[in-house]
Amino acid sequence: MAKITTSTLQKMKTQGQKISTITAYDASFAKLFDQAGIHAILIGDSLGMVLQGQDDTLPVDIEHMAYHTQCVKRGVEDTLIIADMPFMSYASKEQAFTNAAKLMQAGASMVKIEGGQWLMDTIQGLVERGIPVCAHLGLTPQSVNVFGGFKVQGRDNDKALAMIEDAKALEAAGAQLLVLECIPSELGKAISEAVTIPTIGIGAGKDTDGQILVMHDALGISCSYMPKFSRNFLIDTGDIKKAIELYIKEVSNGNFPGTEHIFK
Ligand code: KIV
Asked: Where is 202: in which H helix or E strand?
């Protein structure tokens, strides 16, 4: 497989090819996912929940993220590496520049930040300084306390329209990828059509340009709870690499997500 860059993902959107991405936090899983042909790996701040056993992502700090980014980098040859900027690490532009630099120096090729139009200056500043940005809208887990829980977002019309405007603004500011989490599938479709950058959905329906899953969900390791939008691919294959190959195939041929995985 050739090295995957932001241009590869952009070209995939243009050609109507679905993008498959997954989280990873260490070298061994990252290597397997890379060999299986995954297009991008996210070192998600979900590591707070699935590795550290926290209730949410808020306790994760930049040193945790840099450490796991270094680990993933050692396992990867071709896959694009995206690292999450943790809670309050981009509250100001200056903080964003300093902390994003740590993740890029740890091995990321792109950073991800959660939020809408208030991030436009930050995104523009990061891109001007050579740091590609993935934006994240919908259920942005760092705002769980504002939302009053992990709830589907954008269900009412005003909120849905505001999210479409946010998506366009983030693209205009220079974001090159957009994660959409837990929104009605119709809104996932509308946003994916409203922007030219690739959209990557998790609980955002089948019409986004790609999908992302937390690896623990895709492999059924989060045994106490399986989110509605996820699927255990290990159960069908009994082998981790084959499970990820199946995930990529099912995303590519439009079988995942199925109607049982989407929100209305
Ligand atoms: O932290 C994470 O794993 C994420 C994905 C769920 C998109 O942000």
From this structure: strand 199-202
* Distance from residue 125's CA to the centre of ligand 1 (Å): 23
Q: What are the pLDDT tens digits along the chain (264 aa)?
A: 799 999 999 999 999 999 999 999 999 999 999 999 999 999 999 999 999 999 999 999 999 999 999 999 999 999 999 999 999 999 999 999 999 999 999 999 999 999 999 999 999 999 999 999 999 999 999 999 999 999 999 999 999 999 999 999 999 999 999 999 999 999 999 999 999 999 999 999 999 999 999 999 999 997 667 899 999 999 999 999 999 999 999 999 999 999 999 999
Q: What is the largest CA-CA distance in the chain?
A: 47
Residue 135's Cβ-side half-sphere holds a number of Cα atoms within 13 Å equal to 33
> Is the pTM value of this prediction over 0.85?
yes
Give the residue, by CA position, lying nearest to ligand 1 atom 6. Answer: 214
Which atom of ligand 1 has the smallest separation from the CA of 179? 7
Which residue's C-alpha comes closest to atom 4 of ligand 1?
A: 44
Q: What one-letter code names the amino acid at 143? A: S
Using the mean position of ligand 1's atoms as its centre, give its distance from the Cα of residue 40 in Å. 12
Q: How far apart are CA 260 and CA 169, in angstroms?
A: 31
